[in-house]
Hints:
Elements: H1 2-17, H2 25-32, E1 34-40, E2 48-49, E3 55-56, H3 58-70, E4 73-79, H4 84-89, E5 95-101, E6 110-119, E7 121-126, E8 142-145, H5 149-161, E9 167-170, H6 173-181, E10 187-191, H7 192-201, E11 205-210, E12 216-223, H8 227-242, H9 245-253
Parallel strand pairs: 1-4, 1-5, 8-9, 8-10
Antiparallel strand pairs: 2-3, 5-12, 6-12, 7-10, 7-11
Amino acid sequence: MKFLKVAAMAAMVAGLAAPQAFADKLDDVINNGVLRCAVVLDFPPIGYRDANNEPAGFDVEYCNDMAAALDVDAEIIPVTWAERLPAIVTNRADIVFGGTSDSLERAKTVGFSIPYAIYFAQAVVGKDSGIESFEDMKGKRVAAAVGTVPEQEWLKIAEEWGEENLYQGYQSENEVFLAVAQGKADAGITTNTAVKPVTDQYDSVVPGPRMPWTTDYTSVAGPRKDVSWLNYINLFITHQVRSGRYEELWQKYVGDSAPELRIPGVMY
């Protein structure tokens, strides 16, 4: 009896000491058979709805490509700019393809991949706004989407100029563009990739000046603590570049040669 008790205790201790197997996000996606991608669909040509009201664009195709690599279905979850990070935190989405800048503050909330797309900020302006250079934006009504880098950077400039009262924040970029087209705002700040689709859509809107802040290296976002999932995303991005798919999609939707994803002086 004493031997049995000792053996039982030894088995219990061994069980407690043995490493526990936990499923991670990669396992969850494969087991569920679906990759849930949060995508901003008012960001043409990167994310938008086509003539049939179906999701389309660079980010949508990246989601489809990653789902194919995982041999699962792709589910596009439309989000606003402000909903990108909460979609990960609340487990509404497995991943965010949405031109998300990898700031240190945001990295306290979600995890980030290596860069997968690069943009710079540019304004679209009313045809009669008189705005031709960045300096011409002083004293003008400027709009941007809430929760974006353009909003954050412009507010710093507006504070410096003492013009915070002239700033207008909107929930989506489509609302920003419409405000400029209707004369409610003199300028709207977006990315260089969106300028041509917007100015083609509205006769009253023309390309404006480039903004003075730095190039925006954007990342794919996922759960902060799930390192194996972030590693897989990094490997997927690398494969997209090596295979030429990144170049193919960028030329398809943007029309220019794809920019180099390496940040000068940084190893990836």
